[in-house]
Amino acid sequence: MSFPKFRGRVRNAAALLLVAGVSLMAQGRGGGAPAGPPPTPKAAAPFDPTGYWVALVTEDWRYRMASAPKGDVVGVPISPDGKKLAEAWDPAKDEAAGEQCKAYGVGGVMRLPTRLHITWQDDNTLKIETDMGKQTRLLRFNGAQGQGGDWQGVSVANWERSIPVMGPGRGAVPPGGSLKVVTTKMKAGYLRRNGVPYSANAVVTEYFDKMEHPNGDSLLVVATEVVDPANLNTPFWTSTHFKKQKDASGWNPTDCSAR
Amino acid sequence: MESDGLFGPIDKDAERNPMKLTFKKTILAALLITGAVVYTTKSTITPEAVAQDAPAPAPAVDLTGYWTPPMHEDALERGGGSELGDYAGFALNEAGRLWALSYDPSRVTLKHHQCDAYVSPYQMRATGNFHIWEERDEHYHRLVAIHVWGQTTEGHRVIYMDGRPHPPAWAPHSFRGFSTGKFVGNVLVVETTHMKQGWLRRNGTPQSDQATMVDYFVRHGDHLTNVTVVTDPVFLSEPEVRSNDYYRNIADHRAWLYACDDGEQILDRPADKVPHYLFGQQPFGSEFEKVYKLPLISGKSGAESVYPEFMAKMKTATDAQGLALLKPEPGKRNETSKAVDPNPNDGQIHVLPIRNNVYLLVGDGSNIVVQTGDQGAFVVNSGAGKLTDKVIETINKLSPAPIQFVANTGFQADLTGGNAKLYHAGRDPSLVGSFFSNQNPTAGSTATMISHQNTQNYLIDLKTPSDALPTDTFLEDRRRKFHNDDSIEMFWEPKSVTDGEAIVVFRRADVIVTGDIFNTTMYPVIDLKHGGSVQGEIIALNDVLNRTVYEHEEDGGTMVVPGHGYLSNEHEVLEYRDMVVIVRDRVRDMIAKGATLDQVKAARVTADYDTRYGQNSGPWTTDMFVEAVYNSLKAAK
Questions:
Q1: Backbone conformation region of residue A148, classed left if phi is above 0, alpha if psi is from -120 to 50, else beta
Q2: In B, which residues are within 8 Å of A62 by CB distance?
Q3: Contacts of A55 in chain B (CB under 8 A)
Q4: Is the dihedral of CA B546, B547, B551, B557 positive or negative?
Q5: In chain B, which residues have their Cβ closer than 8 Å to the Cβ of A132?
Q6: What is the value of pTM for the model shown?
């Protein structure tokens, strides 16, 4: 069996390698340009998450577009203690306590029927603003900053990429990647607007992926895991999708509402 | 020895066995392993791919293993089942909404519906575990396909990764459809076409057979996310996006259910009974909103309900607005078909092997079927007659012997247009030397043409030339032949679209040719002037269904060739039968209430099917179909 074209490609590849090798050696001997600093997270982004995005509420519609009845925790792996809290939900009490934003915290805000405005605050910080509830999340790539204790907590971000096919440090890094965000130190809040709780000790892990549809639509998909032993028997998983908008159309900032 | 230039002579033995490394190639390999980009991109290319100048594939992400959906989203819908009338978050257009409102869950008690599988988008969202594995070729370990097997309905989805094209528009559909994939970065992107009609949600929210899907798989450790984007020009006004999560499960979950067998669930039900609700009479149409104290528009507003602005609209919506959505919009012009034209329209005849020695020929206006063998070709229908020379050329390539028989399922011009040419191109050796030869020296020098007697009568009425007339006719229920190692039967389907219709059954090949009794392109052309009737059409469709067997979960099995449209199975016939029954019931109900034909037309009794089959111009419009049903029912009273 013969593969003349294949053989030809191997020859060409080897030739390129030799040229590349000579070139590399020449750089080493002559000193060449010194290696620069690693690119900033903004520069290293495998995809562009910025812009205006609108939630497509095609799942858990009743829980997201309306407020479900008290105690309706269908689908949530709620613990007995969590169930007690859900059944004790009292929006008037939240309002009186100035906690009408409990459903707009990091454990629930991405699930709301909201628009997102995502920008780079600086080279190391991605900012997500919501029009529903006027929340701001800061995703920091250079380590945890801040004390937390607010609705959005402290979010540590990383670009998660595949390792090269031939192992770390060898070969090309495969294209693409995901944004991984781990959030802690938040105020206790609600997974759903009807008072399904998470505690201040919860850990929220999110993966952001951007997907391009052949029709030109861009989708941002956020897969979320909430771990909260106080209120959940197992991690709570959702994935929420947003469609890219051309501009700020429909951006309608509204205050938090406990109801 | 020949020179390979850079590295000198090639070892011929190594050339014969490319996996054998010579010294020089060892050096080459060592160089390559230093980690150059060129190798990492080229090394995954097989010789075949290089030979085809295929682009370098992106590295595959391992999706294999056992995966379990946590069911934290839409748990009610995916578990017990959602409420009837809850279509909130689905971008249903009017046809989709009305189709869903007409749906009665009792329909799954019908024998042929009992084993309906899930279409791919719903399969990915269904309860039950998944097993994903790779199929690689044995020589180069190239990724050929990724298999996704869902426990519920034992849904086996094959995602081809080897760059093969999608089948043509006239190829069969399946519940899982035909999928091809490629890795884009760390995401597997899959395109799926050729799905059967099924559910987007188990409460009757429909997905048509014209839907396509792009879905995305992305893995984060032991967390797999699948995003489905369904585009359905028939029932959706914009793509429907949903996302599903799965966690890795180290245990083989094996099967959960078992291959479904249908059986009798409701005895003595008439064969022409299809459970459904008349427009506006769905008793549970507003149940969802009432139970959850939502405005009546909540579950029926289509694409609007997907976006945040809908929250504001709900606050001001009235009950009247919600109730109006339970019926067709009055005064609206009929919608027209959004289906893909299954005809190639390229002036060529295309061949699609069906099974054994039976082939589908597409391109000349209607479907032509050819059975081949050393006895001579048996042809069913002859097309519109515009490309008959190419039809004959194609048959001659397929068949080692000339055309012996041409059967007509009906007299329609686009089924019999090529009769004369096929007649002259054929030969019937069974007649040569028989007593026919004594009476006619040319006997046997042409094909023998078969049809029901009424079809011959209709053609004679049209002053059809004698060489285009079927002369071997039958009068009662069946004509049969054992030909080319198969049992071929023609069954008369009286008073269906005409009173001369017949279906042709190839028993061993398990292929049924329906003629215009069944189409995937338009409403049935019920020709009252030639003895057609809506009731006879329903009986004929049920007769086809009585002869079909599915292979697995209502998929595959008996192949059904429509007069026009894509190669089908019983499920397509079933949905078509349901449609005819449902439209008949609506018209019959209005007749019983004294409605005139104009009132029936104005009521838009086909509103949920028009985006699939409707036409407002051309030889067979929606109004003509409704009129035929109306007059057929009036005549039967």
A1: left
A2: 88, 292, 294
A3: 307-308
A4: negative
A5: 308
A6: 0.89
| One-character DSSP codes across B532-546 | --HHHHHHHHHHHHH
Please give the structure tokens belonging to residue B4.
Answer: 């390979």
Q: With beta carbons less than 8 A apart as the criterion, state whether B73 and A238 touch.
A: yes
Q: The complex's ipTM?
A: 0.88
* pLDDT score of B565: 98
**What residues of B are in contact with residue A15 (Cβ under 8 Å)?**
6
Please return the burial class of A214, using the count of CB atoms within 10 Å of its CB with bins 0-12, 13-18 and 19+.
Answer: exposed
Say what the pLDDT of residue A29 is: 37
Residues with Cβ < 8 Å from A129, sequence gap 6 or more? A116, A117, A118, A119, A135, A136, A137
Q: Which residues in chain B have Cβ-Cβ distances shorter than 8 Å to A177? A: 185-186
CA distance B51 to chain A (A): 6
Alpha-carbon gap, residue A115 to A123, rounded angstroms: 23
For A177, half-sphere exposure in the C-beta direction (CA atoms, 13 angstrom radius) is 20
Helix (H) or strand (E) holding B405: strand B403-407
User: How many whole angstroms separate alpha carbon B353 and alpha carbon A37?
Assistant: 62
Contact B311 A60 (CB under 8 A): no
Nearest to A170 among B35, B186, B311 (CB): B35
Edge-to-edge strand list for the sheet holding B511-515: B478-483, B486-492, B502-506, B511-515, B559-562
Residue numbers in A near B4 (CB within 8 A)? 7, 11
Radius of gyration of the CA atoms of chain B, in A: 28
In this prediction, residue B39 carries a pLDDT of: 24
Nearest chain B CA: its distance from A192 CA (Å): 12
| B181 three-class SS | strand
Chain A, chain B: beta-carbon pairs less than 8 Å apart: 223
Among the partner residues A175, A211, A215, nearest to B216 by beta-carbon distance: A211
Running along chain B, 637 residues long, what does each successive block of 10 average in pLDDT?
Answer: 30 35 34 28 36 52 94 91 93 98 96 95 92 94 95 93 97 98 94 97 96 97 97 98 96 81 91 97 95 96 98 96 96 95 95 98 97 96 98 96 97 98 96 81 91 98 97 94 97 98 98 98 98 98 98 95 98 98 98 98 98 97 98 93
Q: Tell which of B82, B186, B242 to mutate to test the A interface (max A CBs under 10 Å).
A: B186
The kind and range of the H/E element at B216 are strand B212-220
Distance from CA of A248 to the nearest CA of B (A): 14
3-state class of A92 per DSSP?
helix
* pLDDT at site A9: 46
Say yes or no for a CB contact (<8 Å) between A16 and B38. yes
pLDDT of the residue at B57: 56
Q: Please give, rounded to a whole number of angstroms, the shortest distance from the CA of A50 to a CA of chain B.
A: 19
The one-letter code for the residue type at B250 is I
Whether B70 sits inside 8 A of A237 (CB atoms) is: yes
Please report the DSSP string for B236-273 in residue order. Answer: BSS-EEEEEEEEEESS----SS-------SSTT--TT-
Q: C-alpha angle with apex A89: B293 to A152, nearest 5 degrees?
A: 105
A173 touches chain B (CB under 8 A): no
A75 in reach of chain B (CB within 8 A): yes
